[in-house]
Amino acid sequence: MQGKLKNILSEAQQELSQIDNLEELNDIRVRFLGKKGQLTGVLRGMGTLSAGERPVIGRLANDVRSQIEDILERRTAEIKEKHKIVQLESERIDVTLPGTSFMMGRRHPLSIVQEEIEEIFLGMGYAIEEGPEIETDFYNFEALNLPKDHPARDMQDSFYINPEVLLRTQTSPVQVRTMERTAPGLPVRIIAPGRVYRRDDDATHSPMFNQVEGLVVDRRVTLADLKGTLQVFVEKMFGPATKTRFRTSFFPFTEPSAEVDISCVMCGGQGCRVCSHSGWLEILGCGMVHPRVLEVSGYNPEEVTGFAFGMGIERITMLKYGIDDLRLLFENDLRFLAQF
Questions:
Q1: How open is the CA angle 263-265-269, to the nearest 5 degrees?
Q2: Which residues lie below 8 Å from residue 36, measured CB to CB, with a gap of 6+?
Q3: 192 lies in which domain range?
């Protein structure tokens, strides 16, 4: 039995000297010192020994166990240290190299301008209203004095889902929905920002663009109120020296109607390539709300009046920042976006 114990110690020493893996090290621990290990098997046979041999074999077995455990502990520490060195080497960072820079995100120029427009009108007492982008033909056209056979529909070539449902071509339906909800309450003073859709695609038009429309309904609202409101907006958006000009126009949902021009932001009204040497740039359309639109929405046109206006946010953004191609706003080119 003494020979078996010495062989166990010798075998354990030899195997442990060759191991370089913690899992294999644990396997050896189990094989030699576990409940079913070789050393335990020897100790179970001590019952066959004489009373004089048992103490000797017991001491030798304990000594073998102690030596194997010492070797296991030492080899465990050596393997862990070796793995630690390998890991540190593989994760080493050269602190002399320049660090990795992270690009800070910025708001899109369209978002900047939309928020600025909203802040201007919120400061004048307007509320912000929103509505669905998938709209019915009634709210998008008919409630705005555009019956199905009206030729003005040709100016808003549309994306139809079915004959009665389409992607809205303007945010004007939000005005109708708001008046329906509030009628006959007064006053109504809102702006309606949001995406709209038309079949246009060139350097100055996009099939999807952003629009802000405004609406005021109250007693004794006049064209002078409209002109004063838009003059305040223009001065806050483009600077106090900016002039406005109103030109008569036609919109089915307003009467009278007007296009609004501002003095060219590039040349100050002197005339340049941007304004076609006219000194003026068109920015929006407006007018007094048509009596039929008021009536359809639940208001008595004999008692109340109102004005409305609408502008493309892309148009305002291009003028404000001197952008010459609308498509730049949708291409996500970081060289362009980083300028804002």
A1: 40
A2: none
A3: 109-337
